[in-house]
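Protein modeling request. Please complete all fields; requests missing the sequence field cannot be processed.
Requester role: graduate student
Desired output: 3D structure, token encoding
Chains: 1
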Amino acid sequence: MSTQAIPIKIYPRLTRGRFNNWRVIAVLVTQLVYLGLPWLTWNGRQAVWFDLPGNQLHLFGLTLWPQDFVYLAALLIFCAIALFWWTALAGRLWCGFSCPQTVYTEIMTWIERWVEGKPRQRQALDAAPWSLRKLRIKGTSHGLMIAFSLVTGFTLVGYFVPVREVAAALLDGTLSGWAWFWLLFYAGFTYLLAGRLRESVCKHMCPYARFQGVMFDPDTLVVSYDAARGEPRGAHRKSESASGRGDCVDCGVCVQVCPTGIDIRAGLQYECIGCAACVDACDTVMDKIGAPRGLIRFATENSMAGRVAASDIPRRMLRPRVMVYSALMLVVLAGSMAMLLLRTPFIVDVLRDRAFLVRETNDGWLENGYTLRLVNTQASPQRVQLGVEGLPGIRLADAPVLTLPPQATRTVQLRVQASPESAGSGSHPIRFTVVSLTEPALRHSEDSRFIGE
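Delivered output (453 residues):
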């Protein structure tokens, strides 16, 4: 078997620098949002809540119903275009700083580093035979990883079942089987992917790494090694002349800090996730030898080849493909906002009573029966007046005024009457109206048919 096929555990060194600081901030912010959102309340309920039994999605003051899932489709389209847009601009910067796999792997690495020590200590511990000491250290580090994974699983369930109810059910032992399943399922995959597989997910499982090549162009900003400045590489000795010597001292620190174990000096590779750990490491070495920073830096293919000046990189970001992606995102965003602003305050479903087509009342009018299902999508209660129009003299046998609780559904039976003169034989178009007495500007109508004699 080729040694290239044998998976090798990577022990990345800790690096410090401005990009590492941004990675730490990204980890803290994303986890603060993910872990904290379910605990926020809004108008007496959980602020972000996927209420599957109630067929509702609560996002702070906005409640979406199954009929509103067009917004979810618009969001997915926007995210897909945004992925293309961001990749064209800055390659896999998302992977290196904000991808959940990267974030969770970083947290697991922090735990491992805190419990097991520096890379050489962890490597020596893994190579050592099993003993009580190794069992204690490994048990502690992986126990903490599993504990964190369980917290992520608990939080996931808290988005679908009110998180305070989940916490109470956990404490009194009444958590449902399905809640346990999804808690353990998500926790297990978090531990497996981030605690065990780690960089192998990025290298062998993530599809983004495979199709990123067709999304790059010569003006895409990626982590790059300046070979013209760095070569020929080699150790810098004071006794040797600096003439003809590159700035790269061949220390290998850029490889040692890489979470996927690649050598960026060999050129851009699909394993590179754009985390810029090698940039921080190389800048530290350049500071020590008194050379300018930026031997490894974010740059474009055109700028590294000398076809474009470094000062022109920001201007060339506004190239046609980026502008097209930007325009498409604006169209999707503007369309979604317009639909949201024009969103109907009520959802009305009309169903004709099939028990009879038409019947005659005591005063000689024709009557049809209907069932109306009304949904108040507002966050406040509404008093509404029901009506009907479409035929001369058409009326409701009872014109009820209903009170709809906020974000609630109510079903009502209605009888619609029309004179034989206006409702001849056949089917006639009519329209039910729902007008809010609480906020007169809110109204909705729904078409139906009236069966004449």
